[in-house]
Amino acid sequence: MLEARPERVSKWAVLARLMAHIRQHKPRLALGLLCIICTNVFLLATPWVTGKYAVDGLQESITRQKLAYYAALIIGLTILQGVFRFFTRMLIIGVSRDVEYTLRNELFQHLESLSLSFYQKNKTGELMSRATNDLSNVRMLLGPGIMYTLNTGLIAAFAIVLMLKISWPLTVFSLLPLPLVSYSVRHFGKGIHDLTEEAQAKLADLSARVQESLAGIRVVKAFVQEKHEVAEFDRMNRSLVDKNRELIRVQSVFYPTMELMIGVAVVIVLWFGGRQVIQGAISVGDFVAFNMYLALLTWPMIALGWVVNLFERGRASMERLNYIFDAPADVRDEPGVRSDFQVEGSIEFRNLSFSYNGAPTLRNISLSIPKGKTVAIVGATGSGKSSLVQLIPRLYDAPPNSLFIDGVPVERIPLETLRRAIGFIPQDTFLFGETIRENIAFGVESASDADVQRSAEISNIHEDVQSFPNKFETMVGERGITLSGGQKQRTAISRAVVRDPKILILDDALSSVDTYTEEQILHELKQVMRHRTSILISHRVSTVKEADEIVVLANGAIVERGTHSELLARNGYYAELHQRQLLEEELESAG
After folding, report:
1. DSSP letters along 19-35, please?
2. Statement: the pTM of the whole predicted model exceeds 0.70
3. Is residue 158 located within the same domain as residue 270?
């Protein structure tokens, strides 16, 4: 679950980011406001014409000309009202769509800039829920929320002024329920906000569960957990429905309360206004016009509850989006980076110590890798091998002045320059649901078909690709589900090689291929690694034995280093690893 907000902030502080976007559309919003004013002028003129002129005028004498005139006038006012209402929606709803578009782009751009630690703390499904459902709620706040707030306010203000003009005592009596309306809005609004926030959190949890279950469908089926997943989904879905029912219960009291207040006002007008007509204080036309204005106030009263609901939903959603927007990009370019820097490939760790989430991961690492050399790193699981190489492309930030590229602190090299110079194949092979060609050429827009094919030959995936019906245009499915583990790893190797990087990092990138295929890949990679700095991480001695230097890590520290023959002569950890693997190979051969 995404981290909770540290504290509740004011309504306007939550919406500050939205206000900045709204200010960019002030001309269109101002024009939209003008259209709302015109709409309501023609809307409010209709009861005045109907009551003050048509009803009272026709009481004096009824002629065909009068009927046609008043009918044409009312129809004309209605048409003009409709025209301006059309432009109102086009302008204000259009602004909400534009702001939604901008926010969605900014949100995705910010998500792309955040470091890996953010994604290790937060679930993908919850982030997706915020980027879809919550963003939609914010759009509703900006579009219908703003439009109906302005519309409701203007109708209420103008209608009450005209009602006062007709009869101020009758107006005062008809508005007696207003204080109760104000209290209801304040009371129910808080409950709607809290319940909305809880419902959105449960929806995010449900989205995260679905995403995890579908992404891990192979594991679910392999362990026969379909029924368990369905039951867990049912439990979370039921919890979401129950929370939404709580919200519906509050709303089901809120809206009838608004309607009750309107009904009370109508009864007061009929009783008190009817007596004024009988007494001659107001005309029949005035009474008709007054009732029409009161009817016009019915929608604003109901809309007030709907707008409160939109506002509270939108505010709760904006709070959830602000959590993402306010998350700092821990790994970023700092002032003083060398914009003209070109990576050549030498790497040096100087007394580097690194902790992740407070737990020491690497201790006093000092290691120099000259340009064009190949260094292998071996060690037990959890010894810090992956953590060490992830510091080079700054997937995590090393302490200042502890990691140098070509003699320059890595934090002074622009991120884009640094990462474009590195071909990185991580342990967790990820492929996009596109074609094999698009996966290999990912991030290299200039890659030609020849480049793609050559990199596929180096990784020994070319023959497999040629056996596919569509060859390099074969779709690999989500996360490369149509390929085997070894095929995915070899495709990932091709993706790194096609970049023609200055630094090549293979983090256990051959673990899913057999020994024979591994030898073929390493043979091809020798030509690639000859002119670039390379780092190999592997559990297999066969993978690392040809490296210029082998580094052995244990508990985050370097415990052995040297060539293959030197380390075997020391009879330490590396020699033990070598003997164990030789024994495993003999047993496999005997079997």
Report:
1. HHHHHTTHHHHHHHHHH
2. yes
3. yes
